[in-house]
Amino acid sequence: MIGLTHFLFVSCALFFIGVYGFLTRRNMITMLMSIELILNSVNINFIAFNKFLYADKLDGLFFTIFIIAIAAAEAAVAIAIIINLYRNYRSIDVEEADIMKY
Predict the structure, then answer these.
(1) DSSP code at position 93
(2) Could you tell me the CATH number of the domain that includes residue 91?
(3) What SS3 state is found at 1?
(4) pLDDT per position as a tens digit, 17-31
(5) To the nearest 10°, the Cα dihedral for 51, 55, 58, 64?
(6) How many domains in the chain?
(7) The overall pTM is greater than 0.85
């Protein structure tokens, strides 16, 4: 049977993969995907704790739906900013952001 520890292990693995990707990558798109991985690991935690600790309440589900909505809005705004930066500077590399002249 799949227990709470299995969900927590998957969530922990996703969280640290997301943190590693955010800290090591210099491309803005991969950094955005890493942030999405971190948010999804939090969603797994909310759902797992809701299922195993408070099965009769829906608090974890409501938090998860709220986080998914916020993540979708954040992704849309971030992609629009990234596209605008690419059109102006022909690069989405974070390292080159220090060199760019405004």
Answers:
(1) B
(2) 1.10.287.3510
(3) coil
(4) 999 999 998 888 899
(5) -10
(6) 1
(7) no
Q: How many residues in total does the chain contain?
A: 102
Amino acid residing at 81: I
Q: Give the tens place of pLDDT for each residue, 36-77.
A: 999 999 999 999 998 898 888 888 888 889 989 998 998 999
Report residue 17 as tokens. Answer: 């993969």
Tokens of 4: 């709470």
Is 62 contained in some domain?
Answer: yes
Distance between first and last Cα of the chain: 57
* Residue 27, φ and ψ in degrees, nearest 5: -90, 135
Residue 102 lies in a domain: no
- Domain extent at residue 58: 4-97
